[in-house]
Design a protein that fits this description.
By secondary structure, this protein is of the alpha+beta class. It folds into five domains: 17-104, Beta-Lactamase, CATH 3.30.450.20; 108-187; 192-285, PAS domain (Beta-Lactamase), CATH 3.30.450; 290-362; 371-525, 2-Layer Sandwich (Heat Shock Protein 90). It contains 14 helices and 17 strands. The strands form four sheets. The protein has a five-stranded antiparallel sheet. Strands 7-6-10-9-8 form a five-stranded antiparallel sheet, with helices on both faces. The radius of gyration is 34 Å and the shape is elongated. It starts with 12 loop residues before the first helix and ends in a 5-residue tail after the last strand.
Amino acid sequence: MISNLDENLGIDSKVLEKALTDILEDVDLLAIAHNLEGKIVYINPYFLLLSGYRKEEILGSDLYSSLEPKLQTKSGAVVEVFWSSTSLKNEEGNSVGLFSVGIDVTVRNTIQRLLEQSERTLKDRATQLEDKNKYLEDSRRAMFNLLDDAKALEEELQKEKFNVEKIVGERTHELKEEQARLLASINSVPKGLIIADNEGKILFTNKTVISILNADSRLWTLEGVQRYLGESVDLLKEFKRVHESGAPSKVSNIIFKTKYLEVYMSPILSNSVQNTIGIVVLIDDVTEAKVLERSKDEFFTIASHELRTPLTVIKGNSQLLKDKYVSMVSDVNFEEIVNDIHDSSVRLIEMVNEFLTTSSLEQGKIEFKKDKVNIITVVNNVIDELEITAHAKNLYLKYTSLKSQKMDGLTVVADANRVHEVLVNLVSNAISFTNSGGIKIETLKIPGMLKVEVIDTGKGISEKNQSLLFRKFQQANESLLIRDTKRGTGLGLYISKLLIEGMGGQIGLESSVEGKGSVFYFILPLANGA
């Protein structure tokens, strides 16, 4: 997907591909991918929102195997879309499918049709007026030849002329009102709007741009806007790329003085669809959201650090009470009270550690060791660590691998401690949600990668709650408003996702059926790339 990336600069193409994928998940663009049979293999959230279908109704189907300029939604409504497609190729260069990105141009086309209709109406009116003027002129000449009726005919001519001028004046007034309403709507948009032609000359800006950049728009050129924004974004380079490729572009984390900005560019296409006649630039001030996010992270970090010391003291003292003083107190409730204090302090320390780990991962403060790790060794250590917990619920906990796999070939490039942490989290979750049967760990080689699966026979996860997995502070409960505090903070899977992705891998839910169990997995690169 990324063909022009210079890997010597220190950026992994998979990281960039992940960033592009995240953008497709968030941006207001339609994205869809088909295999060679025309079956849909990927669709982003905005496509689902616009089409009205659920993800399960579309994936694997050929519902949109043919992407037309007019796309029909589930409700029967029609959305006009401009599509841009590219062939998906495997490592051998063979085509394996088609990836398409679309822009909802319904509103733009509607406005364009209205303008075209207005233009046709004016032309028709002008033609009518020209014909009428010619008729009036011919009539005037004829009437001048009629001396007896000259006065009456002159009065009729003046009356007709007055009516024509009145109609033209009314239409001119209507057009001015329509233009005023359009400008008022554009100026009310909370994002800065710039419209430039193909040469980069700015044709229009709204008032929000002036407010964001605090600059005089009368002096602006595209180069001028670049100078205002500084070196945090190459606006001219992005402008050229969008103009040449015809594809939209989004640049985030732009630091402008004391503000954080996001810039989105999109081509303006003519009726032929293939011809770019200009570029629209949206500038969004996201400073408040950035500050709020940073304040929240700083609060959790500071609070976690301040809590850990007193909690450690409580844990140590409660352990001392359990070891030396419980037997000295005759009250039967004393031991239960001490145990509750100790268990609660342990759980709180685990929560604080999760907060600190999450904050460090999000801020990029955790470094990953890239060593050769034998995955079988990690799996066996996890089984030894959690086997007692599983047996306490009469559950089996075992590892299985394909007979064709060589045991000495299951070595990945990763941080052994982080892989252990992720596997412990997945297996612990499986034990917590399984009441009969057990948990099985499997490994499977795929090209250049090793896949580790955790398979349980638990109660499974409902379809509507599967989308909540791997989100921050989110538990897959039946209600979004109810949190089960006995099951932790809801950070376990979120932390696991950050850890696996930090090691260049992937993590997810393979499948889950209510009442039958779930299959979670993570993928890491093989040491030899075999």
